[in-house]
Write a structure and sequence with these properties.
The complex is a heterodimer of chains A (389) and B (274). Chain A has 389 residues and is of the alpha/beta class. Chain A has 2 domains: 215 residues, Rossmann fold; 135 residues, Rossmann fold (3-Layer(aba) Sandwich), CATH 3.40.50.920. Chain A is built from 13 helices and 15 strands. In chain A, helix 1 crosses helix 2, helix 3 packs parallel to helix 5 and helix 7 packs across helix 9. Chain B folds into 2 domains: 181 residues, 3-Layer(aba) Sandwich (Pyruvate-ferredoxin Oxidoreductase, domain 3); 71 residues, Alpha-Beta Plaits (2-Layer Sandwich). A 7-stranded mixed beta sheet of chain B has the order 2-3-1-4-5-6-7, covered by helices on one side. A two-stranded antiparallel sheet of chain B has the order 8-11. Chain B is globular. The chains are: A alpha/beta (389), B alpha/beta (274). Chains A and B meet through strand 8 and helix 10 of A and helix 1 and strand 2 of B.
Chain lengths: 389, 274
């Protein structure tokens, strides 16, 4: 094991090297640009054997990795904000094709250059797994785990690993780099699935084309079921990751922080969850029973875990760093949907907070305000249902 | 946790300095985080960067709002009261200036140390890139880490001869730093300056950005208008009556393009007296 003080984008590129990615293709866009730059440098220095395909836009980069993944290559691409939106169409076919592409999404909102989660959130219908991570070490580790989950024969679903632009992509911090031999053993090469390979003897189509007599709803159902299966596989992979590398991030789906004695939880995603940990320390030192549930997997949503926590807690403050205008915060809505299963006595009070949109800084004191409101609401005091932090 | 704010200009290497500190700290078993200020960074524009040092992984992911230490890489920015804004009471400011700590006009409850990093950089590196030339002073006055750790980190960022030159700059600044002493001026003057990047030169006064100032020798000038054409900030104006250029200094950021383009060397870049 070695270490380097590196920025989040270098952690992503380093993960590609450790995973021995065979085909990478990307178009540079701030704040993802330096991943492309690091990969190009690594390719120029022949640090390992892979193809780096320069393209004229994000639509092509997704199509390149799609084709390579189709024939069994381990593939990587990355983008940000508007670049991701431009990739929308081929993302659907990567998902439908059940191709285990891994993509880093370096969050950039589309009302300006600064980070929020509106880019990846807007892609929730494309049929991918969506993860949100907090710091550079977690970027490196999560990309390795994403390959392990995506390529699992039970899953075969592409995964997007999202992390905030600038505050993570360009912030330098110490990152432990696992030994290559250990990664090679833990993450063996991807295998092509024979049934999706072009076959000259038995002509067939792949991707969207289904053909034959089958019910056209079947591919949708299979796709949906495969994404739901990620929950169990993700937890398995997290356990084996810890066994091999000595680090873990909760159970994969969620990471809880100081929840043992908590009456209320703040649910947050990405880098702001880190700031929230510091706020939880301060609040608990003052006797306030507030903990953190860091949502790591937005798709699939950790229904089982959150149902369990929902029963135990008096209140949950959901912090969304994205909004569907006219609809609201996506993780808040998903949580309410999940906790509808509980009866009226069990169901905790749920509050919606909009924070960090357009890159607005979220500070420790903001989380203390959020925690205070959630505590009040849990005690039955009247507080606003929706707060713009 | 120790929180540090660095003030500099694009091109002086404040971001690299923040990463060298973070790397050196991790060499010694401390956790660290180096954050650049995100904006339209470019050469010459004032910018800030931040470092956090702690004995556990740093979780806070926000800018540093109340630093323990402020490090100023630029001699003109070092004159602005904003470099000690929101510094913790009893905190420390390290300035790149030829002045002694006693001569510093910044006011408030903090300690001041000074080092002439621009001269050190010019003499050891040949360029006014002051990021390493301030770090020796930083180590000496804070004791936050060993000089060897900074030198080891510098070798990671600047291999070979460049690394040796930067290490020479670090050692000289370690030896030459003055202070820290308690700030002589106790009242904080009420002046506000924006030390972060924003807007373009044509929109605001950028005269504080200059390290070197162009001066035109109208006697040598042949009136070819090359400087007028090439100035990226429209700071060079044309006097139609005299058929000679003149400089609107509020727009000039001191890039030196005019001096470079002048075919008869009628423009000289003069170092700003500080």
């Amino acid at each position: 094991m070695s270490y380097e003080v590196m920025v989040g984008n270098k952690a992503a590129a380093t993960a590609c090297k450790l995973a021995r990615v065979q085909v990478a293709s990307a178009f540079p866009i701030t704040p993802q640009t330096t991943i492309t730059q690091y990969l190009s440098e690594m390719h120029a220095n022949a640090e390992w054997d892979f193809d780096f395909v320069n393209v004229e836009g994000e639509l092509s980069s997704q199509v390149v990795v799609q084709g390579a993944s189709r024939v069994g290559a381990r593939t990587f691409t990355c983008t940000s904000g508007p670049g991701l939106l431009y990739m929308h169409h081929p993302m659907q076919t990567t998902g439908s094709g059940r191709l285990p592409v891994v993509m880093a999404v370096v969050h950039r909102g589309y009302k300006g250059m600064q980070p929020d989660h509106s880019d990846l959130m807007s892609q929730e219908w494309t049929g991918w797994g969506h993860w949100y991570v907090e710091h550079a070490q977690e970027v490196l580790d999560s990309i390795l785990m994403a390959y392990k989950v995506a390529e699992d024969p039970r899953i075969r679903i592409p995964i997007a690993v999202g992390y905030d632009g600038y505050v993570l992509s360009y912030t330098a911090e110490p990152v432990e780099i696992p030994d290559q031999a250990l990664v090679d053993e833990w993450l063996p090469p991807n295998k092509a699935i024979p049934e999706v390979l072009p076959d000259k003897v038995n002509p067939a189509t792949f991707g969207r084309g289904w053909g034959g007599e089958r019910d056209p709803q079947v591919p949708w159902k299979e796709h949906h079921d495969a994404i739901l299966r990620i929950e169990d596989v993700h937890k398995e992979v997290m356990d084996s990751f810890e066994k091999t590398f000595g680090r873990r991030y909760g159970n994969g789906m969620i990471e809880t922080y100081k929840m043992e004695d908590a009456d209320v939880a703040i649910m947050a995603m990405g880098t702001i969850a880190g700031t929230c940990k510091a706020a939880v320390d301060r609040m608990q030192a003052n006797g306030k029973k507030v903990g953190l549930i860091k949502l790591r997997s937005y798709l699939p949503f950790p229904n089982k875990d959150l149902l369990e926590w929902g029963k135990k807690l008096d209140g949950i403050a959901v912090v969304d760093r994205s909004i569907c205008p006219g609809k609201g915060g996506p993780s808040f809505q998903k949580l309410r949907d999940t906790l509808y299963e509980l009866n009226d006595k069990e169901r905790p009070k749920m509050l919606q907070f909009h924070a960090g949109l357009g890159g607005k800084e979220v500070r420790v004191r903001d989380f203390e305000m959020i925690g205070d409101k959630a505590l009040k609401a849990a005690k039955g005091e009247k507080v606003e249902q929706v707060t713009w932090v | 946790m120790i929180e540090i704010r660095l003030h500099g200009r694009g091109g002086q290497g404040a971001v690299t300095a923040s990463r060298i500190i973070a790397t050196a700290a991790y060499e010694e078993g401390q956790y660290s985080q180096a954050i650049p200020m995100y904006g339209t960074e470019r050469r010459g524009a004032p910018l800030t960067a931040f470092v956090r040092l702690d004995n556990q992984r740093v979780r806070e992911r926000m800018l540093v709002h109340e630093p323990d230490i402020s490090i100023v890489l630029d001699p003109l920015i070092a004159k602005q009261q904003a470099v000690v804004d929101s510094l913790k009471a009893g905190g420390l400011v390290l300035l790149n200036t030829a002045q002694s700590p006693e001569e510093v006009k910044l006011g408030g409850d903090f300690k001041v140390a000074t080092v002439d990093a621009t001269t050190i950089a010019l003499e050891t590196l040949g360029r006014p890139i002051t990021n390493t030339a301030i770090l020796g002073a930083f180590v000496k006055i804070t004791g936050a880490m060993k000089l060897e750790s900074i030198e080891k980190a510098i070798k990671k960022y600047f291999p070979g001869r460049l690394g040796d030159m930067n290490i020479a700059a670090v050692r000289r600044s370690y030896a030459e730093v003055k202070g820290p002493i308690q700030a002589v001026v106790t009242d904080a003057p009420q002046e506000k300056a924006d030390l972060n990047v924003g807007g373009y030169g044509v929109l605001k006064d950028v005269s504080s950005w200059r390290v070197f100032t162009p001066e035109i020798d109208v006697g040598k000038c042949i009136g070819c208008k090359s400087c007028w054409i090439f100035c990226p900030e429209t700071a060079i104006q044309w006097d139609e009556a005299k058929k000679k250029p003149y400089i609107e200094y509020s727009k000039c950021k001191g890039c030196g393009v005019c001096a470079n383009e002048c075919p008869v060397k009628a423009i000289e870049m003069v170092r700003v007296e500080v």
